Amino acid sequence: MHRIVSDAALDALFRAAHSHYAWLERPVGDTLLRALYELVKRGPSGVARPARLVFVRSAEAKARLAGAVPAALSAGLARAPVAAIVGCPREPGRLAAGGREGGLQAACLILAARALGLDCGPFWEFDAGIVEAAFFPDGTVAAIALCALGYGDETQPAPAEPRQRFDEACAIL
Fold first, then answer.
1. Alpha-helix runs per DSSP H in 49-125
2. Full-model pTM
3. Beta strands 82-89; 52-56: pairing state
4. Domains and CATH numbers, the chain
5. How many beta carbons lie within 10 A of that of residue 31, not counting itself?
6. DSSP state, 155?
7. How far apart are the C-alpha atoms of 89 and 50, rounded to whole Å?
8. Where on the phi/psi map is residue 139: left (φ > 0), alpha (ψ -120 to 50), or beta?
């Protein structure tokens, strides 16, 4: 079945959405995190290997995560109601494919979170070794992405990143 979503949905997912790194003190409950996972697990994947998600909410768990991101970014991650760790199963000979799969699932996490009314602040710059030692110590999961989740503080917007025009970024062959 082919469907086109409404303009309001496109605004929420893409046009009006932007990354957040300043947060309102408004909790994100377990029910919403479960609903988020139910959407993420249905996202596109090359093979049926679901992402491993760790929702970091407690101060103790956030302290274990803090050393993995550059100091300039750690405050934004610490203040977020939730920090999501997106991991993928580590399989011999398939880590590159698993990493691409994990990246796809991280993108699905962002879109699903936005669809559920959450704001997102993705972190691609982090020390995966620290994250894996703290949250996946058995070595079977590779940390692919971090994403702060919550309700963004619109009074402190993140700077808008420039976007290229179609003819600068695309080719039709």
1. 59-66, 71-79, 95-115
2. 0.89
3. antiparallel
4. 26-153 (3.40.109.10)
5. 8
6. T
7. 8
8. left
Q: Give me the phi and psi of 23, to 5 degrees please.
A: -130, 150
| Residue whose entry in the numeric block shows the structure tokens 């590779």 | 142
Whole-angstrom distance, CA of residue 3 vs CA of residue 136:
39
Stretches in the chain below the pLDDT threshold 70: 1, 45-49, 93-99
Q: What are the CA-CA distances from residue 47 to residues 10, 13, 33, 129, 145 (Å)?
A: 27, 25, 24, 25, 19
Per the DSSP assignment, residues forming a β-bridge with 149 are 82, 120
Query: Where are the strands (E) in the chain, listed by range?
Result: 52-56, 82-89, 119-123, 141-150
CA 55 – CA 81 distance, rounded (Å):
10
Residue holding tokens 């029910």? 31
